[in-house]
């Protein structure tokens, strides 16, 4: 893999692997495998994946969370969500080295669909590490850092802005901190994919993403650096959240539409 996160043929390399999981998080991953297997039998679970800092080998004990994707044989229902929450709670309570656990549910056929191929499909094939079951990446294409990929992954930023503003308006101090981190991560990743085709590579590192973005938009780089820091920490500052939601994100959404167009509507 080259320094720009690409395979020798120019396609985006899968960024995580089980052998990159650090010693501190190895028992967490083992527990995740056990809890998922106990909660979801083979009639429901197609495959399970890790994503985020733990399979990339960059996780920090006490600060990093455990991120999981479960691909089901059917569309997720309420019972699936209840069982996923139980998995989250059991692992989070057992391991102080994880700062929260998140389980995302999806349908395998949806992730493989033409409509989701350059969004959920890309996520599985390049950003997720197989943990259980048959790897869906075997049925997905190799991806390149194109404008199509940029549009289909983050071309809907403008659609989430009203919800962010509504949540910010009624957020408690703790909720503001959580919202700020989530918004900041999404903004930085959108900023990176805005320039991804011009840069010609892939990274999930927030700090690197901000710097790469800044090569093309130096007038906004300080805001993006602030967003990258916020995405790795917790801030309760309402002025910072306002900067993200009311200034940087709206500008970014408009620029994204001008450069890459709008994400294709989903069924």
UniProtKB/TrEMBL annotation:
Domain of life of the native organism: Bacteria
Protein name per UniProt: Nucleotidyltransferase domain-containing protein
């Amino acid at each position: 893999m080259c320094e720009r996160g690409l395979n020798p043929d120019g396609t985006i390399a899968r960024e995580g692997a089980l052998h990159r999981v650090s010693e501190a998080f190895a028992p967490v991953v083992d527990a995740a495998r056990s809890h998922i297997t106990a909660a979801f039998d083979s009639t429901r679970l197609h495959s399970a994946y890790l994503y985020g800092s733990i399979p990339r080998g960059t996780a920090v004990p006490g600060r990093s969370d455990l991120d999981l994707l479960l691909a089901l044989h059917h569309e997720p229902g309420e019972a699936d969500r209840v069982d996923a929450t139980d998995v989250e709670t059991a692992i989070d309570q057992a391991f102080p080295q994880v700062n929260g656990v998140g389980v995302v549910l999806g349908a395998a056929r949806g992730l493989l669909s033409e409509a989701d191929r350059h969004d959920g499909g890309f996520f599985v094939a390049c950003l997720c590490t197989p943990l259980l079951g048959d790897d869906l990446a075997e049925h997905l294409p190799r991806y390149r850092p194109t404008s199509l990929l940029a549009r289909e992954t983050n071309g809907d930023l403008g659609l989430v802005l009203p919800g962010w503003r509504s949540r910010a308006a009624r957020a408690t101090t703790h909720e503001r901190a959580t919202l700020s981190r989530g918004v900041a991560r999404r903004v930085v990743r959108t900023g990176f994919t805005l320039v991804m085709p011009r840069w010609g590579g892939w990274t999930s590192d927030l700090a690197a993403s901000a710097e790469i973005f800044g090569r093309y938009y130096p007038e906004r780089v300080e805001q993006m650096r602030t967003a990258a820091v916020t995405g790795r920490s917790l801030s309760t500052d309402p002025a910072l959240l306002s900067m993200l939601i009311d200034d940087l994100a709206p500008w970014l959404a408009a620029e994204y539409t001008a450069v890459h167009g709008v994400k294709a509507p989903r069924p």
